[in-house]
Design brief:
- This is D-mannonate dehydratase ManD.
- Keywords: Lyase.
- It comes from Streptomyces bluensis.
- It is an enzyme of class 4 (lyase).
- Its EC number is 4.2.1.8.
- This protein is α/β, with parallel strands linked by helices.
- It has two domains: about 5-110, Enolase-like, N-terminal domain (Enolase-like, domain 1), CATH 3.30.390; about 110-375, Enolase-like C-terminal domain (TIM Barrel).
- It contains 13 helices and 20 strands.
- It has helices at about 45-60, 65-75, 85-105, 110, 130-145, 190-205, 220-230, 250-260, 270-280, 295-310, 325-335, 350-355, 380-385, and strands spanning about 5-15, 20-30, 35, 120-130, 150-155, 175, 185, 210-215, 240, 265, 285, 315, 345, 355-360, 360-365, 365-370, 375-380, 390-395, 395-400, 405.
- Strands 4, 5, 8, 9, 10, 11, 12, 13, 15 and 16 form a ten-stranded mixed beta sheet that branches. The protein has a three-stranded antiparallel beta sheet with strand order 1-2-3. A three-stranded mixed beta sheet has the order 7-19-20, with no helix packed on it.
- Helix 1 packs across helix 3, helix 5 crosses helix 6 and helix 7 (about 220-230) runs parallel beside helix 8.
- The radius of gyration is 21 Å and the shape is globular.
- About 50% of the residues are buried.
- It binds D-gluconic acid and magnesium ion.
- D-gluconic acid binds near residues 215, 217, 344 and 394.
């Protein structure tokens, strides 16, 4: 092998094996291939274009070993920095380059990050029920599958659709195919009347040991969030997620003053700077930044390092729109990062596991990576090509008076 390998191609694959995924493939002159996830739910083609039209031409000819320099080049070298499209694109490049470094050295990525600090990564999955009996059944199903941590989302009387809740047997999938987003009606007062009792019923049903989580999905005002956190204190949540939109981060001080329910925020953040004051003011307990949308392994490790100083732990985003490539990357970070607490794992339809063949696996409430060099994921390009992109959007939400609110 020559001293410096070079990148000879950066190709973008858009595939829809049941849902859309954007995947970056970087190829080197030595014939190594690195994979990165570039999926941004409902805005997939923007990242595909950003990569194809603006980033790929810059990568060809570069040394794939220079991961940090490439990160800095794509971040600082763009006057219009940050934002989900840019950072997801940078994240995909970063993942692919770590994958290549693993393959060059014959090591799984977690070894290159300093080696394992734990044997496996605790994970949580989703339970969903339109009413409380259905929710309890769903929680039981996940317990039978061995999960030690479960996120519980419930229907709200009077509302036909609620974030995180499905009426079908299949798992919840927020993005809907079609030419426009689904419109949902949201009523915070009805949710606040119902949620504490429903979550208390789940706690009564499961006993003290199961870790319970709940996602308010950015819908509450600071005072509503404070009230909910207080009302849930006896439920002993592992975390209460995204209580407010968190664009105005100062409001979290009010929430924090009124409740000790642990808070988790950050799945829509794209850089360490958006997490900075929430971490350094200890306004959250868990930071939820995703390995793709927050700029890759290199960037997630910087967030983890800052968080560690303030005893904030990582609980990265991992729904069905984060591909098995990104899940692998998150697990490598999880194995090698002391303050990594838990990984979300919603699971995938069987076809997704066929397109993205991976050596990570789930057992007994934990996720583990294998020891293949790199990220341990291979993409079946022929199979992927059989499922072209299908337009899909996340829903939008309106209040009962018709005005838009946060989904
Ligand atoms: C979660 C998230 C997701 C998002 C989805 C949007 O906690 O898993 O809130 O369900 O809504 O990833 O694309
Ligand atoms: Mg969430």
């Amino acid at each position: 092998m020559s001293k410096h390998d070079t990148i000879v191609a950066a190709d973008v694959l858009v595939t829809s094996p049941g849902r859309n995924f954007v995947t970056l493939k970087i190829t080197t002159g030595e014939g190594l291939v690195g994979w990165g996830d570039a999926t941004l739910n409902g805005r997939e083609l923007a990242v595909a274009s950003y990569l194809r039209d603006h980033v790929a031409p810059l990568l060809v000819g570069r040394d794939p070993a220079r991961i940090e320099d490439t990160w800095q080049y794509l971040y600082r070298g763009v006057y219009w920095r940050r934002g989900p499209v840019t950072m997801t694109a940078i994240g995909a490049v970063d993942l692919a380059l770590w994958d290549i470094k693993g393959k060059t050295t014959g090591q799984p990525v977690y070894q290159l990050l300093g080696g394992a600090v734990r044997d496996r990564v605790l994970t949580y999955t989703h339970a969903t029920g339109w009413d409380v009996p259905q929710l309890l059944d769903s929680v039981d199903t996940q317990r039978e599958r061995g999960f030690l941590a479960v996120r519980a989302q419930m229907g709200v009387p009077g509302l036909d659709t609620v974030y995180g809740v499905t009426r079908e047997a299949a798992g919840y999938e927020p993005a809907g195919r079609g030419t426009a987003p689904a419109e949902e009606v949201w009523d915070t007062a009805a949710y606040l009347r119902h949620a504490p009792g429903a979550l208390a019923a789940v706690r009564d049903h499961v006993g003290p040991d199961l870790h319970l989580l709940h996602d308010s999905h950015h819908r509450l005002t600071p005072n509503e969030a404070a009230r909910l956190g207080r009302a849930l204190e006896d439920v002993d949540l592992f975390w209460l997620e995204d209580v407010t939109p968190a664009e105005n981060q100062e409001v979290l001080r009010h929430v924090r003053r009124h409740t000790t329910t642990p808070l988790a925020i950050g799945e829509v953040f794209n850089t360490v700077w958006e997490c900075q004051s929430l971490i350094t003011e200890q306004l959250i307990d868990y930071v939820r930044t995703c390995v793709t949308h927050a700029g890759g392994i290199s960037s997630l490790r910087r967030i983890a390092a800052l968080a560690d100083v303030w005893q904030v732990r990582l609980g990265p985003h991992g729904p069905s729109d984060v591909s098995p490539v990104a899940l692998a990357a998150s697990l490598h970070v999880g194995l090698a990062t002391p303050n990594f607490a838990i990984q979300e794992y919603m699971g995938y339809e069987p076809l997704v596991h066929e397109v993205f063949r991976h050596d990570w696996s789930y057992a007994d409430g934990y996720l583990s990576t294998g020891d293949s060099p790199g990220l341990g994921v291979d993409v079946d390009e022929d199979l992927a090509a059989r499922f072209p992109y299908e337009r899909a959007y996340l829903p939008v939400a309106r209040r009962r008076d018709g005005s838009m609110t946060d989904w």
